[in-house]
Amino acid sequence: MATLELIGFGSTGWGALLLLAALMTLCVTASALAIGAVLGAIISAAKLSGKTSLVALGNVYTTVFRGVPELLIIYLIYFGGSSAVTSIGKAMGYEGFLGLPSFLAGALAVGIISGAYQAEVFRGAYLAISKGELEAASAIGMHRGLRFRRIIIPQVLRFAIPGLGNVWQLSLKDSALISVTGLAELMRTSQVAAGSTRQYFLFFIVGGALYLILTSLSDRIFNGAERRANRSMPTAAMGKA
């Protein structure tokens, strides 16, 4: 009974706080994935451009942010960003420390890491597009913008869904590292609950179960999206031209 009260949803329970923390985890992961998608698209375009300098820049980005430990990147963004904001504040006449918001720092750090993986996902998806499709689009008079909108984007997204699902799962687990910034996401809340009640095993098990629920639901969503994308014929866009 005491255990149920601890993890319940009443005034003395931690259940509601854990659910809010799970929602925060989803929000920061979704924000990170969006940031990573923008960065990944830019880096993949650079690596596919064929220009030596851009290819080298893209390779450096993906090598560094896939090779450096995620926790170190979070520390660099959070503490380094706070130092930069404080310096800017001092230059504008404000005295005192200005900390970078935990949510922003966490989403940005995980997003930068995610961008390195998404860049490779997008690059591989582009290379999977049939060259015959692109040649046929050019042959029927599609200009570059129309070809990009009707052929390249739909095909890249279709081929990228499985890889993006893996990146989402990776980012979801990386979000646990953001607890070092003090953000009340799932890992941080589980730690606080465990420390406050001395029920370490209980709350870490509950936290792990919530992570498994989130990852399982995410798997189903991405699998459904992949099935739906594969229903349409690869040449459907050609017929709409």
From TrEMBL:
The chain crosses the membrane at residues 14-42, 54-78, 98-117, 200-222. The keyword Cell inner membrane applies. It comes from the Bacteria. Residues 22-222 form the ABC transmembrane type-1 domain. One of its GO terms (molecular function) is transmembrane transporter activity. InterPro entries: AA_ABC_transptr_permease_3TM (IPR010065), ABC_transp_permease_HisMQ (IPR051613), MetI-like (IPR000515), MetI-like_sf (IPR035906). Its main location: membrane. One of its GO terms (cellular component) is ATP-binding cassette (ABC) transporter complex. Keywords: Cell inner membrane, Cell membrane, Membrane, Transmembrane, Transmembrane helix, Transport. PROSITE patterns: ABC_TM1. It is a multi-pass membrane protein. It holds the Pfam family BPD_transp_1. It is found in: Cell inner membrane; Cell membrane. PANTHER family: ARGININE ABC TRANSPORTER PERMEASE PROTEIN ARTQ, CATIONIC AMINO ACID TRANSPORTER, MEMBRANE COMPONENT. Belongs to the binding-protein-dependent transport system permease family. HisMQ subfamily. NCBIfam families: HEQRo_perm_3TM (TIGR01726). This is Amino acid ABC transporter membrane protein 1, PAAT family. It comes from Rhizobium tibeticum. The lineage of its organism: Bacteria, Pseudomonadati, Pseudomonadota, Alphaproteobacteria, Hyphomicrobiales.
